[in-house]
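Why does residue order matter? Because the sequence determines the fold. Keep that principle in mind as you read this record.
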Amino acid sequence: MELQDRYITSVDLGTSKIALTVAKVEGENVQIVYYKETESEGIRSSSVFNASQVSEPLAETIKEAENALGIKITQAVVGMPKYPVRLESNTGKIDGRGYDTDITAEDVAELKRSAQDMYPLENPNMEAIYGAVAQSFSDGENFQIIENDIIGMTSDVLEGHFKIFIGKKSSLAKIDTVLKKAGIVAARKYFTADTTAKAVLLDSEMENGVAMIDFGGGCVSVSVYHGNIMRHYASIPFGGRNITGDIQIESEGSISKDLAENIKIAFGACMPEKLLNLSEKIIHIKSEGGEADKKLPVKYLSEIITARVEEILMAILYEIQQSGFADRLMSGIVVTGGCAQTANLGNFISELTGYRVRTGYPRHMYSFQGCEGVTETSAATSIGLIMAAKEDKTLNCAFTKEGYVAPVSFTQEPEPEPVVEVPKETLFEFEPEPEPVVKVQQPAKPKKNTGKVTWNPLGKIKEFCGGLYDTVHQEVENEEI
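Structure:
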């Protein structure tokens, strides 16, 4: 039974923040009525490792939303971990359908479920299938048929080829524990690589070929699309938290993690040579003890950030090359996630890869009022979860408390015109002339590779990634992520 007036609640469990979103759905219209980000603890590389640390702030945020909206939240849709996830292939087939039988959307859905259920996991006690994406179909005579075209064809045989996403079963169980401790249950669990892409990417980008980089706090993932189909997915357990840790290390342990994060947000940028007058600024960090105040030049800070971002991007570029679609990404790269708004990040990726790059904000498929942050790149995962859950017409995550008057109906905001190419970031180039500062002796700068990197650095990338991936699990175990 379809509900005419319902609420959808989403929970984004990120390494740096937990985001709670509440949307009121009226037919096809979606209004975001609540959005809040809370600092995250107990999550590493997008997976829960301490359920109590996660559930306590989530429970408080849920209570705040209930009081603000006059509703009772009973369940939520939630995203699955982005790392570790591996990609496998599988084939499903249905014989003896009847030569005069039309292929329906239900047949395709059943074939997809069969491909997931029948996939032979290496260790069923430890692994779980997070989802599947159809690559192509066959009717026994014609091959490489897309989903939209196979529906309506008449055939005795239906065969499909799928990409299967496999992750840890324990990670899903820990999500259930977190939500239970917070007083709700999971209505749906989504593998967010696809839902986030559909909230950020244009249809033309997914058709022509694009790589979406989701740059989060605890991990960075890449989803490659071509022909409106996700062709490849990969993730690495490095992200914004590592940049914050680098800043702490360079300060010789004299600043806290929170202060390092604030410095990164306020002054962090890639490409120190593009900072112009801002590069002359010195960040003065007052010491709480008897030690001398710490002085951190903005240009040196940018060099620290650029070095770590380049390391992460080299691993991502390797995965794009592995996808087999590196030369077919006509729409280039779209960067989303909490770290996507790092100044000059788009310019740096474009210079490093040769692709054109734009920042991926959530598309305006919804309306909102008074929900700060809901249009930023950090909200892309949350909006993707809401829009995916919206398609289930029977789903309702909350009910109105007695005596509460629900928000009035709203007018859907128009979809913006597609942007072919976003100009390169010029955040610092046009900043006003800063006040004169007294220059101080800069700390010794780390050695920097000044050589130009051109596209298709496959040999260099493979050499780098071999060492990178060998240290991943050790770093995770040592709690350095």
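The CA atoms of residues 281 and 437 lie 7 Å apart.
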